[in-house]
Design brief:
GO molecular function, one term: hydrolase activity
Number of domains: 1
Shape: globular
CATH superfamily: Phosphoglycerate mutase-like
Number of strands: 6
Oligomer: single chain
Pfam families: His_Phos_1
Mean pLDDT: 96
EC number: 3.1.3.-
Strand order of the largest sheet: 3-2-4-1-5-6
CATH architecture: 3-Layer(aba) Sandwich
InterPro entries: His_Pase_superF_clade-1, His_PPase_superfam, Phosphoglycerate_Mutase
CATH topology: Rossmann fold
Order of helices and strands: EHHEHEHHHEHEE
Keywords: Hydrolase
Radius of gyration: 16 Å
Structural class: alpha/beta
Length: 198
């Protein structure tokens, strides 16, 4: 593999479920008005940027964000960029998850143990990493989801799993709607650009 890959990962804009604190996973919600506004701000931010390829999760909120941020450009849809499949917890708030009988067994090992009728974080890492490892050199942008992006970062950089109070995903870093993370791969080595969340 020759040449460097510059990869920009973008979390989609907000939906009604984001605003109400409901975990949507594979539930195919569209952007809300706020999310559309965030995507238009991304369009301004990305103006003048050139990308060899544009990818998006095939879930509507990611596709809409990509279309509004980079209008008129061809987008490659890849289901491996989907959000974490929350199974029985889809549409739940955190307190509703905590009241479910399957919550405690899952929390004992969320990387290895799938949520009821859903995925484990390790499952997400494997599909995200398979996608990332296939990317050619060049400048690529991908519109995905919060847990999916952060799981890729954990896998690429060996970040620790750290249980968080009142938050079921054991990652210290959060990623807001419409935020970016910029990575570089050269010679098979991945690095992260400083300040890439803003």
């Amino acid at each position: 593999m020759s040449g460097a890959l510059h990869l920009t990962l973008v979390r989609h804009g907000t939906t009604a479920w984001n605003e109400s604190g409901r975990w949507q996973g594979l539930t195919d919600n569209p952007l809300g008005p706020g999310g559309e506004a965030q995507a238009r701000l991304l369009r301004d931010r990305l103006a003048g940027e050139t990308f060899d390829q544009i990818y998006a999760s095939d879930l509507t909120r990611a596709v809409q964000t990509a279309e509004l941020a980079l209008p008129g450009r061809p987008i490659i849809l890849d289901p491996r960029l989907r959000e974490y499949h929350f199974g029985d917890f889809e549409g739940f708030t955190v307190p509703e998850m905590q009241a479910h009988a399957g919550f405690t067994p899952w929390q004992a090992d969320p990387w290895g143990q799938p949520v009821p009728q859903g995925e484990s974080l390790g499952d997400v890492a494997r599909r995200m990493r398979a996608w990332a490892d296939e990317l050619p050199a060049g400048r690529i942008i991908a519109f995905s989801h919060s847990i999916a992006i952060r799981t890729l970062l954990v896998d690429l950089f060996g970040l620790p799993l750290e249980p968080q109070p009142n938050y079921p995903i054991p990652y210290r870093e959060r990623l807001g709607n419409g935020q970016l993370v910029t990575l570089r791969r050269e010679g098979g080595v991945w690095t992260r650009e400083e300040g890439s969340r803003t």
